[in-house]
Amino acid sequence: RKKSTMGRGSLIVFEGCDRAGKSTQCVKLVEALENSGTPAKLWRFPDRGTAIGGIISQYLEKKCELEDHAVHLLFSANRWEAVPKMKEHLLQGTTLIVDRYAFSGVAFTAAKQGFGLDWCRQPDIGLPKPDLILYLTLTPEEAAKRGGFGGERYENTPFQEKVAKNFEHLKENNWRVIDAGKDMESLHEEIQEITRAVIKDSKDKDIEKLWI
Ligand code: 2DT
Ligand code: MG
């Protein structure tokens, strides 16, 4: 289909530690945008619904073992395979609200022994660059209040602490740090305000490339 005359949609990414409420806020944001006439679509990585995503899902569920470099590349491939569709939506004027992206890719793999941020970034270089990264943070105390982890791979405190440190190194000026400790509705309001401004601002801009 053809390019929207209303301008392109925005690429908005949520990142942050487990239990910060990313998925909940993504759903609420898409709903709010749609209700006010702003076309928006929920997206998430890993996308467990593709062939590559199926392998990733098995790995996260601990149903199989994969070599660490290999699985890092699969996570990246799972993003690249989505790029044509993502671009199509963006150019048609649909804003994509994305639950995790390349930053999780880097932060999680770099939390493993023997991996540096620089190596981890390479396969995702050139992906569509987000117009905004909403980084949801939670104090360890607040996180503890929200109950235990699930049983998937990476869901333990020492690993998550390393991941959080890595996120700090990835921050750039298109990141907004959001205190996810406040109540769900105030958080939603804050996120809406920031997002709507970015959507307005990026309408006529080209989609840039990540880390180039
Ligand atoms: P969810 O719980 O959000 O489904 O995430 N992960 C994610 C990586 O290790 N690399 C990546 O590139 C991405 C996108 C984070 C599943 C887990 O997968 C991790 C948590
Ligand atoms: Mg999870």
What does this entry look like structurally?
By secondary structure, the chain is of the alpha/beta class. Helix content is 46%, strand content 13%. It has nine helices and five strands. It has a five-stranded parallel sheet with strand order 2-3-1-4-5, sandwiched between helices. The protein is globular. It starts with 10 loop residues before the first strand and ends in a 10-residue tail after the last helix. The mean pLDDT is 95. Residues 18, 152 line the site of magnesium ion. Magnesium ion binds next to loops.
Structural topology:
Layout: E1 11-16, H1 22-35, E2 40-44, H2 51-60, H3 68-80, H4 83-91, E3 95-99, H5 102-109, H6 117-121, E4 132-137, H7 140-145, H8 157-170, E5 175-179, H9 184-202
Parallel strand pairs: 1-3, 1-4, 2-3, 4-5
EC number: 2.7.4.9
Pathway: Pyrimidine metabolism; dTTP biosynthesis
Protein name: Thymidylate kinase
